[in-house]
């Protein structure tokens, strides 16, 4: 009888996470490029491409290294298991979904949106989907992952309660985490791929595509009514 080999036996080199980290550090310390990569809200014509580039720039060192702390823990582990293509897909699409949701929920005054928090929360959501879908292989480690999730959620709840007027993009965080979990359901590599995982993957793919299409339609409708 032959044993099935785990898809995790040969970890990937986390080239995407290391590359994004290096770019973010470089852009922060080489000079003030935030205004050229951040997204102005209301969105001005010709700046729509910044919905993606805003994840590469940060407001200050605390903002940068706080996001990199999670990226270099959750991101490195996730990419070592699932590879750079899946990781990049989660990171950038969750970041895009987070940016759009922040635009849709924006209220005056005008602001500039920047930072990788939405993409980072997308990695957290996708990694949570990984743990749930691989619940038996992850059994020895689920308590550590549950503790990390509790700490992240607890920090969000604390800041929302005691610093509601801060410049934290809570809508982007929530949207990134939800979209990352939905997309993660269809892109994570499972040790055992049974009927449950198959249907979860199909539903995740449908929800991810439909959700992104809906967000893009709502974004176009919202931007169309702004005269900037």
The CATH superfamily label reads Rhomboid-like
Q: Quickly count the helices.
A: 8
Write down the overall mean pLDDT: 83
> Shape, please?
globular
CATH topology type: Rhomboid-like fold
The count of DSSP E runs of length 2 or more, i.e. the number of strands, is 2
CATH class: Mainly Alpha
| Binned strand content | under 5%
Unreliable stretches covering 5 or more consecutive residues = 1-5
Q: Note the gap between the termini.
A: 68 Å
CATH structural architecture: Up-down Bundle
Give the neighbour order of strands across the main sheet. Answer: 1-2
H-E order: HHEHHEHHHH
Sheet bearing the most strands, described?
2 strands, antiparallel
* SSE-based structural type: mainly alpha
Write down the Rg. 18 Å
Provide the helix percentage. Answer: 55-70%
The number of domains: 1
Structure description:
By secondary structure, the chain is an all-alpha fold. The protein has one domain (15-224): Rhomboid-like fold (Up-down Bundle). Helix content is 67%, strand content 3%. Helix 1 packs across helix 4 (61-104), helix 4 packs across helix 7 (170-187) and helix 7 (170-187) runs antiparallel to helix 8 (195-224).
Quick structural summary:
The chain has helices at 15-29, 34-37, 50-53, 61-104, 117-133, 142-162, 170-187, 195-224; strands at 39-41, 111-113. By secondary structure, the protein is mostly helical.
